[in-house]
Design goal:
Chain A: One of its GO terms (molecular function) is 3-isopropylmalate dehydratase activity. Chain A: Belongs to the aconitase/IPM isomerase family. LeuC type 1 subfamily. Chain A: InterPro entries: 3-IsopropMal_deHydase_lsu, Acnase/IPM_dHydase_lsu_aba_1/3, Acoase/IPM_deHydtase_lsu_aba, Aconitase_4Fe-4S_BS, Aconitase_4Fe-4S_dom, IPM_dehydratase_rel_enz, IPMI_cat. The complex is a heterodimer of chains A (about 475) and B (about 200). Chain A has 15 helices and 19 strands. Chain A is an alpha/beta fold and about 475 residues long. The longest helix of chain A is centred in the N-terminal third of the chain and has 16 residues. The model of chain A has no long low-confidence stretch (mean pLDDT about 95). Chain B has about 200 residues and is α/β, with parallel strands linked by helices. Chain B has two domains: about 150 residues, Aconitase, domain 4, CATH 3.20.19; about 30 residues, no CATH class. Chain B is about 35% helix and about 15% strand. In chain B, strands 1-6-7-8 form a four-stranded antiparallel sheet. Chain B has a four-stranded parallel sheet with strand order 2-3-4-5. In chain B, strand 3, helix 3 and strand 4 form a beta-alpha-beta unit. The longest helix of chain B has 14 residues. The termini of chain B are far apart. The mean pLDDT of chain B is about 95. The chains are: A alpha/beta (about 475), B alpha/beta (about 200). At the A-B interface, helix 2, helix 3, helix 5, helix 10 and helix 11 of A face helix 4, helix 6, helix 7, helix 8 and helix 9 of B.
Chain lengths: ~475, ~200
């Protein structure tokens, strides 16, 4: 008898259910656990108090990222510089102590492999297709780009995974986001995901796992897929995924934690089966026409507040929902924007190229292509490029990208989460605007009173050159 | 986890939609290695505005918060739940919650009660002057008037809350099943174990 057609999500889920309780709650096995310094200290402390061990330290990898300054970490003589912020230093020290105490592999702040946890996982081959991956960080959804079921968890769940290598979960509903046609020149994976969030809304994916489908994704690089899946959570979906294919296998082959030799071949055989079967049903289906998508920017304080770069700041009056009208009015007040203002007239004083959404080599190349032979506008006060990992940084330097950034007036920084959430010293001053390749434009996200406009790396570079939000296509091919 | 059955008291009528976890507790408060003391930073940006509902005297020590759609969206930071507990909040009523926040709330014994918008609107009105009761056992929210709003709750979470059960303790009792799963996994997908060994061999 042929088994019922299943979605990719259902295949991965089924392979990881340890037990199903009568009430529908499932005990689910976790293959990979990534740990960083912010959401783990309370979990380790609780384990210690309860006298519990880490069940599978071999499936756990720790790396610091959120608090680290992105300024040089060593002095010219090679000595390690202390971290000025006492609280940040204490949190980083806690991870550095907890990892070896519990037998966990730890990439320290000075290792060339250090970086943002969601850049490091795939880059090291620690994140693999068909696995369940968790981390105490909502952007864990990123790893769905290599075909893993990956989602963010809270600290109590971090503790649960450390102690048991499982989580108690209920199955999610499934949503298909099918993109038809091809992206136009100048339109990037970031524009695509911002557009998708604008369509489904910031709560549209709540309770769902999204599978992104269509030729656009088959042709997309792994870096682009990681960008798209990363922001699934901004559409409310705890996880987003894309079926793994040869592009993913080629990306992972030879990476340090990836299987090798015969094990690799066996793995690839299984990974090839990880596709949604013909006839499988999704609980919800959203179809997007790629031709509708233009370079996209945010205007408000929710990631659903997006518009094509050629558009204008909307008026609260155009929204049907009364609560949304009120929210938009508040957003515009916070953002200091008047309805009807063309997006291209919005001036920015700060540029941030980085974050787990857009700090991989392709992102830096895309920005550098725009910046090459150009300089940032005099009105742009602060522009930083923060590679996602030490390895990305090294590769960019080998390609000469660092010189393009610095020649254009950017600061070329050390890897970390940086101005995406401003836990480290990289902050946008109150009332100032930032064209940012990060993932959240929430109130105060980049610093108290900071105003964030989300966009792609190429668009951020374009804004740096002109001093205002700019359609990057106008600077292309000049 | 402490037992939770019924919560009665004043409810802060915030009403706002898409209250994200950066609003509940801004990132600069996350540098702590403790779960305590985060109440000082809770809803910091909202509380900077004069006349905000958190600082109305009537709502001092209120155990319930009423909010709009998609409460707790954004980051996975459990600090949001810890901050709310630290300021005395043990329940939130909203039309919908983000998945991660509702999990974090539950793990900390905070009730996340979902009700339709029109019922939330009614409660926002009542809450201005009157207390509200959330009865978990009977899954109903009541007011001093005739309002009785039934709500859904995950049966496993309800069981854990009513009995104050520790999820990790429960799961550790399933050790044999986890071991069986691990053995089967080692047979069928052996490359998943000990990736650190691959790393050493690659080197």
């Amino acid at each position: 008898m042929a088994s019922k057609p299943r979605t990719l999500y259902e295949k991965i889920w089924d392979a990881h259910v340890v037990e199903r309780q009568d009430d529908g709650t499932c005990l689910v096995y976790i293959d990979r656990h990534l740990v960083h310094e912010v959401t783990s200290p309370q979990a380790f402390e609780a384990l210690r108090l309860a006298g519990r061990k880490v069940r599978r330290p071999d499936l756990t990898l720790a790396v610091p990222d959120h608090n680290l300054p992105t300024t040089p970490r060593t002095a010219p003589d090679g000595s390690r510089l202390p971290i000025a912020d006492k609280q940040s230093a204490a949190q980083l020290a806690a991870l550095e102590a907890n990892a070896p105490a519990f037998g966990i592999d730890y990439i320290d702040a000075f290792a060339p492999e250090q970086g943002i946890v969601h850049v490091v996982g795939p880059e090291q081959g620690f994140s693999l297709p068909g696995t369940t991956i968790v981390c105490g960080d909502s952007h864990t959804a990123a790893h769905g780009g290599i075909g893993a079921l990956a989602f963010g968890i809270g600290t109590s769940e971090v503790e649960h995974v450390l102690a048991t290598q499982t989580l108690l979960l209920r199955p999610s509903k499934t949503m298909e986001v099918r993109v038809e046609g091809e992206l136009s020149p100048g339109v990037t994976p970031k524009d695509l995901i911002l557009h998708i969030i604008g369509v489904i809304g910031t709560a549209g994916g709540t309770g769902y796992v999204i599978e992104y489908r269509g030729e656009v994704f088959e042709k997309m690089s792994v870096e682009g897929r990681l960008t798209v899946c990363n922001m699934s959570i901004e559409g409310g979906a705890r996880a987003g995924l894309i079926a793994p294919d040869q592009t993913v296998f080629d990306y992972l082959k030879g990476r340090p934690y990836a299987p090798q030799g015969e094990a690799w071949d066996k793995a690839v055989d299984w990974w090839r089966s990880l596709v949604t079967d013909d006839g499988a049903q999704f609980d919800k289906s959203v179809v997007i026409d790629a031709a509708d998508i233009e370079p996209t920017v945010s205007w408000g304080t929710s990631p659903e507040d997006v518009v094509a770069i050629g558009g204008t700041v909307p008026s609260p009056a155009v929204f049907e929902d009364a609560a949304k009208r009120e929210a938009v009015a508040k957003s515009l007040d916070y953002m200091g924007l008047a309805p009807g203002t063309p997006m291209e007239q919005v001036k920015v004083e700060n540029i941030f190229i980085g974050s787990c959404t857009n700090s991989r080599i392709e992102d830096l190349r895309a920005a550098a292509e725009v910046l090459k032979g150009r300089k940032k506008a005099a009105s742009v006060r602060w522009a930083i490029a923060v590679p996602g990992s030490g390895l990305v940084k090294r590769q960019a330097e080998e390609e000469g990208l660092d010189r393009i950034f610095t020649d254009a007036g950017f600061e070329w920084r050390e890897p970390g989460c940086s101005a995406c959430l401003a836990m480290n010293p990289d902050k946008v001053p109150p009332g100032e605007r930032c064209a940012s390749t990060s993932n959240r434009n929430f109130v105060g996200r980049q610093g108290p009173g900071a105003r964030t406009h989300l966009l792609s790396p190429a668009m951020a570079a374009a804004a740096a050159v002109t001093g205002h939000l700019t359609d990057v296509r106008k600077l292309m091919g000049e | 986890m402490e037992q939770v059955s019924s919560i009665s008291g004043r409810a802060i009528p915030l009403g706002l939609k898409n209250v994200d976890t950066d609003v509940i507790i801004p990132a600069h408060w996350l540098k702590t290695v403790s779960r305590e003391g985060l109440g000082k930073g809770a809803f910091e940006t909202i509380r900077q505005a004069p006349g905000n509902p958190f600082d109305v005297e009537d709502f001092a020590g209120a155990p319930i918060l009423i909010a709009g759609d998609n409460f707790g969206c954004g980051s996975s930071r459990e600090h949001a739940a810890w901050a709310m507990l630290d300021m005395g909040l043990t329940a939130v009523i909203a039309p919908s919650f983000s998945d991660i926040f509702s999990g974090n709330a539950f793990k900390n014994g905070i009730l996340a009660v979902e009700l339709p918008q029109e019922q939330v609107d009614r409660l926002l009105e009542v809450a201005k002057d009157h207390p509200i009761t959330i009865d978990l056992e009977n899954q109903v929210v009541t007011t001093p008037f005739q309002d009785r709003f039934a709500f859904e709750v995950d049966p496993f979470r309800k069981h854990c809350l009513l009995n104050g059960l520790d999820e990790i303790g429960l799961t550790l009792e399933r050790d044999a099943a986890i071991e069986t799963h691990e053995r089967a996994r080692a047979d069928s997908l052996p490359w998943l174990d000990a990736p650190t060994r691959n790393r050493r061999e690659h080197a």
